[in-house]
Design brief:
Length: 595
RNA sequence: GCACCGGUGGUCUAAUGGCAAGACUUUGGCCUUCCAAGCCAAUAAUCUGGGUUCGAUUCCCAGCCGGUGCACCA
């Protein structure tokens, strides 16, 4: 037992107890896809609900639900098409993989090797006599492989419209921004969330549900005015966090920085206040759902890891089996995403921001006489008009001369200044269009679930016997409570237990009824799936004149208290909602000491 | 994708070129006791395909799945 790693024991338990298992096993299985069993589906759904509550409801944000398939142009705009279309060539000697396009570009005057087909790239490599940069072996004859991490599909019959399964949920939000901003009444800041599946055709899925080809993300896109909006840090400034900044990672004796969100933002460790705000929110949220804070940190991206548009990015990481796994990313993305879509799509991805006072500005304008330009320039007239408008904005002085010259498609056109109707007009501007900046907290739901299970996995000894239990937080545990009659051959006990099951289910709790085998066995069963409480109906609770009582047993400690039947639903709900703890309940009622 | 190792009931293991064994779990029955240990019974497995062989779960090859390392993770 001791030799098996945490991950192996977890995988075994997950399979046996219905948390998750490899999909399509009946057909040999398929790498990178997992099915959540009854417990896992409930746990995951509880995690998603908890995330929704914190990042959508409590923040006053909007949630949308976009399709998982989107047409090709979306990913042309987002950069995923190019970004994923890497050509790799592998060295036969040392096994190292290299970007084929980069190798060719570095060793020839070709600038756009990315546009080559894989066959052409392989030919170039042979022609240029390229060798492996790692070991120097000849790369000629090695096949060049196309790497597209997006799943491609066809939309509709035939194959006219190419589509892709989204590699992240975020694009669904960015693409719909022009309409969503209307729902936000064009006022920044506002946040949009989405919880859903995303797909990446990973080369090598690993580590059970940590790296899969289909996974669930919970993402928030916070749209802010970069010049005006500041987060309200007051609610998180005292939150304590363990930071691992880039410079500490690079230092020989690099160490963590234990600080508070307020101090980290003030000291500039976390450069962006919005990022800092969400780190604080996330820290508290992770704690609440049961992440072990001693095995949790925020790690800053190293300069080399940063996407070129991102000025600061932090990952939330949890420790499992000595490895740190990324469970969320907090990225300042500037206006990159919306600007990209604005370039490619025919919609307005800006928000109109009104000035405090309308401004009067002088603006140079032209109103060319097309009845002259048309006959004179023919088909180029339209282009000339546009060029004149641009010129008036950029260089109004040019219109002081009798004649202005503009270039359209390489041709020069001279226009009589009178014909342009150049004028400097006073205009009233009430505001301006701004492209919002984006702060993106992006959570991996599956990895969060994995972390919760790994951090909840406990083994201890009760009466010299080994016990395995999942110390899951009541807020996310798949089952809220188990209900047992102490023995199954006493009708009174069974009847009352069944009544309690009905009552608790009516109250919205997830209840598991069990009357088979010894009571200890039933407790163990629930311990292993992580049910936080078990209610046992015994004779003692039915005797005497006072109200009927049953015992509630707490999973981690095994402590029991005797609680009136009428109080059960309210007590259990309050614990699930984090309003009370078992200790509060224990203090209020009589503790059972036999056992 | 490469390399190495592995793949037997739900789970963990055993064994075997000739009827595949055990433990735990599960289910039914008995029992009735607050922490998996009682009794009886039942269900349930050799990853897939090809080859060698009279016969393959076993040996060989390929694939699939899993673990580890490398690479990859925009």
């Amino acid at each position: 037992m001791a030799e098996r790693t945490e991950g192996e024991r977890l995988t075994e338990l997950a399979k046996r107890r219905g948390y998750y298992f490899g999909s399509s096993d009946a057909y040999g299985g398929v790498a990178g896809f997992y099915t959540y069993g009854p417990q896992g589906a409930a746990l995951k759904s509880n995690v998603e609900d908890a995330w929704r509550d914190r990042f959508a409801v409590q923040e006053g944000n909007m949630e949308i639900d976009a399709p998982t398939i989107m047409p090709e142009p979306v990913f042309e705009a987002s950069g995923h098409l190019d970004g994923f279309d890497d050509m790799l060539v592998e060295c036969a000697e040392c096994g190292e993989s290299h970007r084929a396009d980069h190798l060719i570009e570095d060793n020839s005057d070709l600038e756009d090797a990315e546009t080559l087909s894989v066959e052409e790239a392989a030919e170039r490599i042979a022609d240029l006599g390229l060798v492996c940069p790692n070991c120097g072996a000849d790369l000629a004859g090695q096949s060049v492989e196309d790497f597209n991490l997006m799943f491609e599909t066809n939309i509709g019959p035939g194959s006219s419209t190419a589509g892709y399964l989204r590699p992240e949920t975020a694009q669904g939000i960015f693409v719909e921004f022009p309409r969503i901003k209307e729902y936000a009444r064009n006022r920044l800041p506002f946040g949009v969330t989405q919880v859903g599946r995303a797909y990446r055709n990973e080369i090598s899925p690993r580590k059970s549900i940590v790296r899969t080809r289909e996974f669930t993300q919970a993402e928030l896109e916070q749209f802010v005015d970069p010049e005006r909006d500041e987060p309200d840090l007051s609610s998180v400034e005292d939150v304590e966090v363990l930071l691992y900044p880039a410079d500490e990672q690079q230092a020989d004796d690099g160490d963590y920085v234990e600080t508070t969100i307020g101090a980290a933002v003030e000291d500039g460790i976390v450069a962006n206040a919005w990022v800092g705000y969400f780190l604080g929110v996330a820290q508290e949220w992770y704690e609440r759902i049961g992440v072990d804070v001693d095995r949790f940190r925020f790690r800053q991206h190293l300069p080399g890891e940063l996407a070129h548009y991102s000025s600061d990015c932090w990952d939330a990481e949890s420790e499992v089996d000595g490895d740190w796994i990324e469970i969320a990313g907090f990225s300042y993305r500037s206006d990159y995403d919306l600007s990209k879509h604005a370039e490619h799509a025919d919609e307005d991805f800006t928000v109109f921001r009104q000035y405090d006072e309308p401004k009067t500005v002088e603006r140079a304008v032209v109103d060319p006489d097309m009845s002259v330009l048309g006959p004179e320039f023919g088909g180029a007239a339209g282009g000339v008009k546009q060029a004149l408008e641009t010129l008036a904005e950029r260089d109004p002085d040019a219109f002081d001369a009798d004649e202005v010259t503009v270039e359209v498609d390489g041709e020069s056109y001279a226009v009589d200044t009178d014909v342009t109707n150049f004028a400097v007009e006073e205009q009233t501007e009430s505001g301006e269009h701004v492209t919002p900046h984006v702060v993106e907290p992006s959570f991996g739901v599956d990895r969060t679930v994995y972390t919760l299970l790994a951090h909840a996995y406990e083994e201890d000894e009760v009466d010299d016997e080994e016990r395995t239990y999942l110390s899951l937080a009541p807020a996310v545990a798949p089952r809220d409570v188990g209900v047992f009659p102490l023995v199954s051959n006493v009708d009174e006990l069974v009847d009352l237990a069944e009544d309690i099951v009905d009552d608790l289910r009516t109250a919205g709790l997830s209840v598991f009824y069990d009357d088979s085998g010894s009571i200890g066995r039933r407790y163990r069963r629930q311990d292993e799936v992580g049910t936080p409480f078990c209610i046992t109906v015994d004779r003692d609770g039915l005797e005497g004149d006072s109200e009927t009582t049953v015992t509630i047993r707490e999973r981690d400690s095994g402590r029991q208290v005797r609680v009136p039947v009428d109080a059960l639903a309210a007590e259990l709900e309050s614990v699930r909602a984090d309003d009370r703890t078992f200790a509060d309940i224990a203090a209020e009622y009589e503790e059972v000491t036999n056992a």
